[in-house]
Structures
1.
Amino acid sequence: GRGDACTTHCPTCPPDTPPETPRFQCMDCMIPDLFCQDFCVHAHSRNPLDGIERWDATKFKRTSLKDMGLRVQLGHRHGEVCEMSITAHKKFLVIYTNGIHNVAVDFCGCVDESIVGLRRQQLLRRLWYPATHEEPQTCTTFRALELFHVMTLQGKVTTYDFYTGLEKLTTKSGLVKVKDWYKAFMRTMRQWRHLVMLKRGGRGNDGDHLVAETKPGELAVVCPACPQPGVNLPANWETASGEERFLYILYIAIDTCFRLKRRLVSSEKKDPGFGTGWSYFTEDPPFQKYLLSVTDQKEMSTCISLAALDYANTKFSRGYGSTGVGLGVCARHEFVQRNGAADLQRGERNEIRLDLILKLVTFVIPKLHIYGHKLLCQLNFSLNFTPRATRTDGEGIECPWANIGPVATSTREMGPGSRHDTLDDHWGHWNWEKLTGLGALLKKCMLCAIPERNFQRGSLATFTENQAEHVGEWMTMVQVFEADNTRPNPYELPKSGATESDLRLKFVQEEAADEAGGRLPIHNVSPSVFVIAGLDLEEQGHRIKVAVAAHKGESSKHSVSIIEKCTKLSRYLARFRKVQAVYIPGALQALADVPVVQGVGTLVENILLFLPSALSRELRASGCNTISI
Ligand SMILES: [Zn+2]
Ligand SMILES: [Zn+2]
Ligand SMILES: [Zn+2]
Ligand SMILES: [Zn+2]
């Protein structure tokens, strides 16, 4: 309600003015009272976009300063009225952070246009951005554009949601329809993004080269920590000794994201990018030319982990102008590289070709992803085995993907140019965030790395000492391999013969053959199942021993869990012994020979199983039965 506001006279008017019930309040100004219409209009000559409400006997109702008689004079000092003023369109509209406003605007029509400026300039000088440049009828304030820009970069708010939100702020109930200026807002925002990027790149008014002469990648925020000759490298970096060369390695992680598709809407002709190629996306014309030169390719790789690439070639790509984005980031600091993003195309043109001097490039697979690859990939492309790779994990690309993911739904429906501009803008923000956080992050990493490095060095020294007789030979193997990776890989485990499942298969086949030949097993548990059960028991015993040692003197929780495991093992053991009596009577004999240690009260994990391998040669020969004759 009206609260304690005065009902008889306007507290802001001089005492000699005729009494009038003050009925207006401003939602944006901090004025404690209600006031009269004249004062309200006068007080808002500098704030023509404030939200005003009028008391209509029972409730406050939204009204507008335009309806109350406020006019905005452009091109003159505050309070001046232009004698030659030109009235703007009667439905002139301004989009502001608190809603959408109808405003009565007067342009200055004074003679010298070079002084007063064009209409769009008159608006821009009041920080109102016109949606069209000839006869502006709609504007968005710089504040509203800034607000949306931050909201979309930080929270991935879409243009549609933001604009609809402003409509709701304007009409509250949503029952009154505001004329739809969404397209105008969208267009303005796109220009704004572009201009802000140019401004931040120091382009536009540098008096040096025109905006159109912006060079590829010039607007990208680049990583200050990665090596850049002429920027942060010493003059003699190319001749640095082997020990120091790791300082000058650039780690680039390349990955593709199939969520960042684009439907086949609009075209490059209808919707060209404002600055495609100036920051993160590759330049359009050279990239299109390159795509035409790439021949169809079906066989991507024999490694199943690369099946994702084949996914792009399936029917799921139908109806899409682009099937995703390929991106390169610096793997250690996660900066999107300048011109490091490219559209994946329909069909088979997804090869990422690196026209590089291959001798200088080492290919590796990130440390987590590598476990999804086959063994050969794990051996040949491991960062752990790459000389001077330090402790890089190469997984840095996943973070920018996670950040850009929420944008995918809206960019999917955009034309090619809007999509490029939008994604470039988000990556610019991502890189900026990385840049401002880099100092603190690197310090944190270093403080973490020093004690770890010391610990690992200590372990290596101890190991080297204990294995002194092998170290020389091992070192040579590693050095030979590092110098020439076609030589035997010392990290490759030698083939250790048949696996457990190979042997199981062999035994089962033998047993089947025996039964087919009429030789039946002497127990309904077959010999192979019995042996496997024995091995299993042995392993469980070891596990309990390890657990007991690890949790010595700890809480009762661990003791309970260990006792439970022991009880279970005892039960298995009892069943095992019954079958053992049939297959290995010799074991019972051996068991009888063992002193009291194996009697009642022996911890279950210490009990000797006497599997055939644990028996003496003679006992094994005489004390094992397999099949009935
Ligand atoms: Zn008054
Ligand atoms: Zn106000
Ligand atoms: Zn004028
Ligand atoms: Zn970097």
2.
Amino acid sequence: MPEDTAPHPMDHIPVRPLAFDVDGLAGKDPVWSRSCPEFSILLNALGLHVPYFERYLIRVLNRAKAEVQDPKLREAMSAIIGQEAHHAKNFLAYNKFLGLTYPKAPALDDAARDFFVEHLKIDTPRRQVGFTAGYETFTFLAGMIVLDNYDAWFSDSEPTIKAMWVWHQVEEVEHGAVAFDVYKALYGRHEWYRKYMIAVALKHIVVETVRAYFHMCKVSGFLRNPWRAWRSTAFLASTLSRMAWLSLPVFSRKYHPRNHPLVTDRQNPIAVGWRNFEGKGGDVLAIDREKMKTILRAG
Ligand SMILES: [Fe+2]
Ligand SMILES: [Fe+2]
């Protein structure tokens, strides 16, 4: 099926209870992309705090469900909660794998957990839904950026970790409108606050990612020579800037994630193929070059 006639990815969001062989990664290099080693460190750094955000999202949306009347939105809320629960389970196990190499990873992991547990206690419901919607703006955009750069960033990489990230990014795009719709349904009259919380969430993502990224680069030896250190810094700066740049339409009053061109007329062929392949029972727990060819043929 050509991408431009594929069903809209945000219709009928499935919950896929996938369990990756994270234990089998023990002893492997956490710099898992040979195509772009900096990219693997960036995703490792970004991913460290994400499972705790996902658990926070689950609690926030579960509470918000009591206020939401629209049955379609309630169904989508159940789906995002299911998807994020499986993300958190797999990526918390992955954090333990990162801890085998990076001495500061367990402390960063603990700090991320404490931050989100604390903010579930102290923040108002509006701030919690606003932060969730703001944060999901970037997981949605990152989902599309990452899949669009597959050849440069993923083509030669460890099959299980690649499979985890392809799965995660496909699902972030599928549920990329749900938190936005919940905010609009409950607090739509506070449009300025929605925009403010996008900036708050971006700052949080950047601070957490930069902290972990430079620790991981240092441990992996990327900061030992000036050229490599510059290249690592430039990759981080350019990728985060691109994410911030792509988020600009989100500040428009007319914005809706469903209408983003990357999920309508320019759907990513990997995402389309992956959804079809997995939907027919295909094994997506490890993706090597041959498996990716099969996935693309399913599109
Ligand atoms: Fe997620
Ligand atoms: Fe998400």
